[in-house]
Structures are given as C-alpha cells and as structure tokens.
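Support request from a user on the community tier.

User writes: "When I paste my structure tokens into the form, the page sometimes reloads and wipes my input. The last time it worked, I copied everything first. Here is what I submitted, just in case something in the input itself triggers the reload:"
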C-alpha cells in the first residue's frame, strides 16, 4: 500500500454534485429565458415546491452562474405567505 494516494471521496462527491446541479440549473436557466415562472405564466404550487426543495442551495455558490434561476427563487419567496418558516431556514 506504500505509494498509494489517498482518495478524497468528499471532493469527488462535491465535484459530481456541482456537475449534476450545473446541468439541471442550466436547463432551468434556459427555461426561464423570457419567462417569469417555470411551469406557466403565473406563480403555481410548483414554484413554491421547487423553491422549498432547493432551499439548501441558497447556502452555496451553485446558483451564482444562473441569474434567472436566482431571481426566480427570490420571486417565489417574495410572494405573501411563501416565505420559508424559521424551521426551513435553520440548518
């Protein structure tokens, strides 16, 4: 085992996550071109659901390259009654 390099599993997982997120976010970014919402012309439950599901992403730099996606996320939670509760913001 001498001479073997230690594999940084966490770094590999982080790189894989960044790659997958980049593909998904790039698709969403394209979908949002010229649109305010992903599903249709109006705010829907999908918007709130999506924003809730990816709320942890706001703690990272994963959306920095996707300004339309960041704005979409902000619009979703800017609506009355849509702001995440304290329990969803902790962590």
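"...and here is what came back when it finally went through:"
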């Amino acid at each position: 085992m001498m001479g073997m390099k230690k594999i940084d599993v966490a770094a590999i997982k982080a790189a894989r996550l960044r790659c997958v997120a980049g593909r998904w976010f790039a698709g969403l970014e394209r979908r949002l071109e010229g649109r305010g919402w992903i599903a249709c012309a109006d705010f829907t439950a999908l918007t709130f659901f999506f924003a809730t599901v990816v709320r942890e992403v706001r703690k990272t730099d994963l959306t920095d390259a996707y300004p339309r996606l960041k704005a979409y996320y902000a619009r979703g939670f800017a609506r009355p009654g849509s702001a995440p509760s304290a329990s969803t913001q902790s962590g």
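Agent notes: The reload is a front-end session timeout and is unrelated to the input. The chain has a mean pLDDT of 81. The radius of gyration is 17 Å. Escalated to web team.
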